[in-house]
Write a structure and sequence with these properties.
2 copies of one chain form a homodimer.
Chain A: E1 2-8, H1 18-32, E2 42-46, H2 60-68, E3 74-76, H3 83-93, E4 98-106, H4 112-120, H5 125-129, H6 135-150, H7 154-168, H8 183-188, E5 191-193, E6 196-197, E7 206-214, E8 220-229, H9 244-257, E9 266-268, H10 274-283, H11 292-297, H12 314-317, H13 325-337, E10 351-358, E11 363-371
Helix pairs in contact in A: 3-13, 7-10
Chain lengths: ~375, ~375
């Protein structure tokens, strides 16, 4: 399958409804594909039916049907933070000529504490939710294990944050666009769950992203696409510093594309928390296990490095509107491949990888995308 | 695609968790298919992430992954009351050799009022939820229109309830199995939302259903499968007495199967409320528009009629555990085709139709299933 058009709203804390954001992103994708909604054969929507953001809506596909006045095959594929990637994966497999994929989330609402509780419903009910093990706390435990096992430091985490903020500074669609964040800001930010500081955590925003996938040959091809789901509690893994769903999805996506990790020119990975970006380097095969921190120390994944990661600013600094995130990664990759990224434009942009995770490694999708 | 195995729990108000019910249904389906979980290539789960049933779980696929100790491609496709059918439709399209489809819901929980509110999140936020237009009230408005336009009476509705209770009486998996319900019980039951009485409403239960679909030739074939999604507010339709998503899905499923409504031997349709069964007769082409009531009056859809409908007892009397319902329809059809239905066994059982609706006509799937 190929990608024909992409669209996304600016990510940020501006108060907007899921409906209007989804409409804006979908319209931009249609425009970009030079298509009308009548050319679309099916729609896959990703959205969490969040109660506490004030929207209380379980049938997001019907909202899209209302906006566009369409009656089509339309389903919803939510997977919390990994919903966008899961929807994209599903859309690729449905067999239709042209599928609109939309992810949208109103996450930065008036009552953030209650929205956090809504999202915590993605954690294990008994061992995590009841114990107050919110996602920053879960990921802090993972980070501690990586530090113990491989000598990774909080300075490494800070360098990930800095890199992604530097990239977001150049991305007009990023929440932190044009906002300077220094290493000192990061290192002095308040501790959320030790060793994670505020600037180690992704940015809660409102936003939507959309794309059109098609059987027609276009300039961007999906060469590999895989999704795996694992059990919930991260601490039940024998090795807390690796996420099997992610490793398996990467392996399969590489195999489908007939490439290996070393063939990837750039990547958008799931940096919900800075240590997770380091773990992803390893799980995706960009380096050996335990050597992720070396990549950030040596600047390999910076904009001018050998393998730039999260040129968009990532979940960290572009923002992480849950179900929209996975599709916004596709947006960045397509824009890079078309040389439309202005000051953050890459030169080596032939083959990219997108990785999106739901829960603490509970479900992961990996897509290998190539200039066709 | 073919159906290889089916399983379901007894539907009822017994207090059980989604997890254990999903496990029981999936194990039964695997057993029935003479397969092990290792033969499964992908899993599609349908479940509403209900907060107020005490479970608070957004990542149902990971729960299934835990139970079976598997790491597979697994997604969730919820569509409230239509989730089971939507998951089945999606699973057919994913392209895997063997897919396990599971729908499970803990709906009859300790706090039914709050669970009702959870499900109401499938209605339009402004025009329906805020106005207190819960699903019985929405369907009451639809029923009133059908009465006005076509002279359908509350006696007709009662006859639908009676038929489905008579069928459930014979179905050991039905919530109302072995429980006699008389026409007097139905007609004297309290009014919920005029003209709907308690016995015109489907039965809130806990339950799960599962099936294995496969590319291998088996004794039961899915000849047609279609899903359409429409906008939310039922009262925005020009004609409130017909649901376009349902009509379109039926048309496409018939076309795929190369048959028409008259070729259907028996059907499981979405009788969330008794008038909806009558509307479905019409929308599915079993009779002309406005003549649905005639079918129930003449006994056409009874167990010994020309076109038996809801031999399982339907949502009405077997019970309606939201995401499980659509898959439980497949269960009944397969069991009828295998002549395993005891006292409610049909003789003409070559070709059947399953119809599952989410919201008040917001999304609908129709499957045409044949003995192969």
């Amino acid at each position: 399958m190929y990608i024909k058009g992409v669209g996304m709203t600016k990510f940020g804390v501006e108060d907007r409804t899921t409906q209007e954001m989804a409409y804006e992103a979908a319209l931009e994708a249609l425009d970009d594909a030079d298509m009308s909604i009548d050319d679309v054969n099916a729609v896959v929507v990703s959205n969490e039916d969040t109660r506490n953001n004030g929207e209380r809506q379980r049938l997001a596909p019907s909202i899209i049907a209302s906006i566009f006045k369409i009656k089509l095959p339309m389903i919803r594929v939510p997977a919390v933070c990994g919903g966008g990637g899961a929807a994209f994966w599903t859309a690729l497999k449905l067999g239709y000529d042209n599928v609109l994929v939309v992810g949208a989330e109103r996450l930065a609402a008036t009552n953030t504490v209650r929205v956090t509780d809504d999202i915590l419903m993605a954690a294990d009910r008994v061992w995590e939710q009841s114990e107050g093990l919110i996602f920053p706390a879960q990921n802090a435990l993972v980070a501690q294990q990586h530090m113990l096992k491989y000598g990774t430091t909080t300075d490494d985490f800070a360098m990930v944050a800095l890199k992604n903020h530097e990239n977001a500074y150049l991305n007009p669609k990023a929440g932190f666009y044009g906002k300077k964040v220094t290493l000192e800001d990061i290192k002095k930010s308040p501790v959320v769950a030790s060793p994670l500081r505020l600037f180690d955590c992704s940015y809660n925003v409102n936003g939507a992203a959309a794309c059109i996938i098609t059987k027609d040959r276009t300039d961007v091809k999906v060469a590999g696409s895989a999704l795996f789901t694992d059990r919930l509690p991260a601490f039940e893994n024998k090795d807390m510093t690796t996420w099997d769903a992610s490793v398996k999805a990467a392996d399969m996506a590489y195999t489908q594309a007939g490439v290996s990790a070393k063939d990837i020119d750039f990547a958008e990975v799931h940096d919900a928390f800075t240590p997770v970006e380091i773990i992803n380097y390893e799980d995706l095969g960009f380096c050996r296990k335990g050597e992720g921190a070396k990549m950030i120390r040596e600047g390999v994944t910076k904009l001018d490095g050998r393998l730039p990661v999260n040129t968009s600013g990532g979940l960290k600094a572009k923002g992480h509107p849950i179900s929209a995130t996975g599709i916004s990664q596709i947006y960045e990759i397509v824009k890079q491949m078309r040389n439309e990224c202005g000051e953050r434009q890459l030169k080596n942009n032939r083959r990219a990888l997108a990785q999106n995770i739901g829960g603490a490694g509970a479900t992961a999708s990996v897509h290998v995308i190539e200039r066709a």
